[in-house]
Amino acid sequence: MIYLNWYHKYLPIIFGVLSYIVNPLFIYLVLTKSSKHMGKYRFLLIGFAVFDIFYSIAEMLTPIAVINTGYGFATFITDGFFTENANYAISSRCTFIAISYALLIIHFVYRYFILFHPHLVDKMLQPLGVFAMIALTAAHGASWTWLCDWCLAPNEEIRDIVRPAFKEVHHVNSDNISLLTGQYRNASNFVVYKSWFGILSLTLFSCYCMSVYLVLGYKIMKKMNQNTNMSTISATLNRQLFKALVAQTCIPMFASFLPTVIAWYAPMFLINVTWWNNYICNVALSAFPLIDPVVVIYFIPNYKNTLLVWFRLKKPTVTATSTSMFSIPTL
Length: 331
Fold this sequence. Notes:
By secondary structure, this protein is mainly alpha-helical. It has one domain. It has 10 helices and 3 strands, in the order ααββααααβαααα. Strands 1-2-3 form a 3-stranded antiparallel sheet. The protein is globular and about 65 Å long. Mean pLDDT is 84; it is low at 320-331. This is Serpentine Receptor, class J. It comes from Caenorhabditis elegans. The chain crosses the membrane at residues 12-31, 43-68, 88-113, 125-147, 196-220, 241-264, 276-300. Pfam families: 7TM_GPCR_Srj. Keywords: Membrane, Receptor, Transmembrane, Transmembrane helix.
């Protein structure tokens, strides 16, 4: 075990435990408190919640930290069964980032279809559509894993480069520690070229995902703003969808994309951001499975009001049959 401090060790564990509580609760709310107008979209919500649970399990089994190696970095497993001689474990753990990107793309596409091509919404959750979503998710995960494994897995040369940093900072022998590395200078051309190729490819991969969110998000918001002859209910639902869209767009950008890009590129300029990686980046990544269901609960009144009643923060009320924000095309 490599111990950094209580902040790095225990905050991800706290987020993981809360994720194990909140996501099953979220699944219960989706199954029992969803408006009938939500239709099959609730299955996508449940699918994301199940993924969040597995994401938290991976966080608990493979806690990671980052160490600066001059013009490079090493991401390594700090504790647990996979601490030594298991580079595949850390590659698989990083794959969850790519899978989360794919699932968010699927949600954005669904929302886009609701407004622009409502006839395709049902097809999206038929066998062919489900196969396409699984294929997209698998392609994301496989691509990310291959890039990490082929470009960033250490060889003997890299082990020699990172050994002094581990000795100086953590007082351990790094020869058998499970890790991934990027080395931009002061190494052989083979190592440097692989590092550059891997990091640039992962960056382009992330930018492609962020671009899909921004483009589809912009088109969705523009389409909603064009619907000027809305009823009061439609306008309210429109605002709810806008807020949920902005929040869910910010989650991957600020909890995943921005921290990892800083972690990747700072060593290129000989900037030591070990503190950022270990105390901001890794903690932000571990919080993602908890933040996502909380955001959805907050922006869907049926779910939020149910929790407020349970915790005696709001008195139960009898209302007319509500309409979900996902029924906008039928209004």
